[in-house]
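F.,

This is the one I mentioned.
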């Protein structure tokens, strides 16, 4: 295994959820950046390389679906885990622009979080073209 930590962007408006996700993932050797809003999340994504993003569907006044779509515009196929405790997440996978988004319903167990995060990152590793130019937000090589 590489000595580089896998980088995770967490966008969730609830500080307790961001904190729990950060603690669980850091214990499992992930580097985590957590933010509360769409604007902050997109700023981080544009300025830093991440391996995966975990995005709450309901971000207060913002829409997690909009954030997912904007990230996918910037980096098609980028690994995303959508989380929500309010609604069924089936519609996410049914939207063509949101294909390959992994959905996780709150509350979730720490082991589930780690598993879906690793699955999302692994799915991206299969799609990476080594000749492709790296863009902001895409995993480092």
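My design for it:
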């Amino acid at each position: 295994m590489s000595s580089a930590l896998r980088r995770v962007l967490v966008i969730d408006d609830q500080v307790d959820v961001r904190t729990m996700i950060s603690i669980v993932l850091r214990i499992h050797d992930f580097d985590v950046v957590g933010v509360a809003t769409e604007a902050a999340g997109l700023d981080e994504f544009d300025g830093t390389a991440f391996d995966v993003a975990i995005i709450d569907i309901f971000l207060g006044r913002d829409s997690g679906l909009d954030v997912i779509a904007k990230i996918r515009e910037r980096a098609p196929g980028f690994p995303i885990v959508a989380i929500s405790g309010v609604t069924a997440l089936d519609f996410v996978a049914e939207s063509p622009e949101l294909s390959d988004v992994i959905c996780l319903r709150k509350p979730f167990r720490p082991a589930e979080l780690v598993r879906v995060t690793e699955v999302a990152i692994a799915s991206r590793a299969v799609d990476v073209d080594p000749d492709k130019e790296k863009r902001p937000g895409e995993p480092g090589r």
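DSSP finds five helices and seven strands in the chain.

Talk soon.
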